[in-house]
Amino acid sequence: MTILTYLDTHRDALWFTIGFGLLAVEAGVLGFSSGMLLFAGMGAVVTGLMITSGLLSGATVPAIAWFSILSLGLAAAFWKWFLRFQKGRHPRHERSAI
């Protein structure tokens, strides 16, 4: 069994792989600088959870539709919190007395 046939038969594993891959790239490479991959990764993980729990079939079109809706909804809900998180991480520049 190849990895492609496994992911074709186990659609939840496909969405988990996409989601955690996007989260890893956002955290490791970009350092939470953009946030776009963060919300897309969270949407993919929630889509995988919905397929695993049986709330969503493994069909491609509904899964992509829910992935889009969830990603946009999570971005709309957490965007202000994400901006506050980003602003709090930058070190403050102190003025020199010299």
Largest sheet: none
The coarse silhouette is elongated
Class of secondary structure makeup: mainly alpha
Strand content: under 5%
Q: What is the N-to-C order of secondary-structure elements (H for helix, E for strand)?
A: HHHH
Q: Tally of extended strands? A: 0
Notes on the structure:
- The model has no long low-confidence stretch (mean pLDDT 85).
- It is elongated and about 70 Å long.
- The longest helix has 30 residues, at 60-89.
- The relative contact order is 0.13.
- The termini are far apart.
- It has 98 residues and is mostly helical.
- It has helices spanning 3-9, 11-29, 36-53, 60-89.
Q: Topology, pairings included?
A:
Elements: H1 3-9, H2 11-29, H3 36-53, H4 60-89
Helix pairs in contact: 2-3, 3-4
